[in-house]
Write a structure and sequence with these properties.
With about 280 residues, the protein is mainly α. It contains 9 helices and no strands.
Length: about 280
């Protein structure tokens, strides 16, 4: 399944490379608003999952997607018709670099979600990251990104050569590192959440390396294809979270029913409870 997804997306990217499709700034804004909305829903759902059973993986995914939603929303606003020419950088520089900032931010948080899981699995409670530290770090990075794009003129983002936007390979490599980590973790074999996270990382990797890095002008086919893949990758994490939460609720309900049956047949149930204890 994982290999098939990668092959299909790589093939689609190869075919779209020669497409004459040209999108628009309005379409770009619509896709970014959709991505912002989905990312925020993912972040909030991940926080619900985190506070039901705390661990580093859900903490970093939750903060990562909330921060990404804010960065995607900022990107959508400052690159729209309303504000793009108010910023110190023109759209041909502002649009690519602000996209890259959001993608790099999320890819780093995804790597940390795997790396801190390793740390927590080795050290137990001592390896769990402090919530305040994570929240403060993500907040500083997010606000710092806002100020950077509001104050600093940006260089050109498009180049001639094999890759029109070679800077997109950096988050692509980071998504690849996170993907290798989650595959080696092997929890995806039993946990639907981790399965969908792996699919999301594969799509994110393809979005950066196959699609956006091969975009040679604003709103071309690869540009819009990368945005579409980004939205799909967000959806994958959301599906994984909802599946995980459903299984958790079913487990709680099943346990409650078992306890109710034990209480109803209390002599037998009490004996079983004592022997289990």
């Amino acid at each position: 399944l994982f290999g098939a997804v990668a092959v299909v997306l790589a093939t689609a990217g190869g075919l779209l490379q020669w497409s004459p499709w040209i999108g628009s700034r309005l379409l770009h804004t619509v896709m970014e608003v959709a991505g912002t909305t989905i990312a925020m829903i993912v972040g909030l759902a991940a926080f619900m999952r985190y506070y039901s059973r705390k661990n580093n993986t859900h903490l970093f995914i939750a903060t990562g997607f909330v921060g990404t939603a804010l960065l995607d929303g900022y990107h959508a606003v400052v690159t729209s018709d309303l504000l793009s020419y108010v910023m110190p950088s023109p759209p041909p520089s502002l649009i690519p670099w602000s996209w890259n900032a959001s993608r790099t931010f999320l890819s780093v948080l995804m790597v940390l979600s795997w790396w801190t899981w390793r740390r927590e699995s080795r050290l137990g409670e001592l390896g769990r990251s402090a919530e305040r530290t994570v929240f403060a770090t993500v907040a500083i990075l997010t606000v710092g990104t806002f100020l950077f794009f509001a104050l600093v003129p940006l260089p050109e983002a498009y180049f001639d050569g094999l890759f029109g936007r070679p800077q997109e390979l950096l988050p692509g490599v980071l998504f690849g590192v996170a993907l290798i980590g989650y595959l080696n973790k092997q929890s995806w074999q039993n946990d639907p959440f981790e399965l969908w996270v792996v699919l999301s990382l594969i799509i994110g990797l393809m979005s950066q390396t196959v699609a956006m890095s091969r975009s040679f002008s604003l709103y071309d086919a690869m540009f819009d294809f990368a945005h579409l893949l980004k939205i799909i990758s967000y959806f994958c994490v959301l599906i994984g979270l909802l599946s995980s939460m459903r299984l958790l609720f079913e487990k709680v309900e099943s346990t409650s029913l078992e306890l109710a049956e034990m209480i109803e047949n209390w002599p037998c149930g009490l004996l079983l409870f004592d022997s289990a204890g």
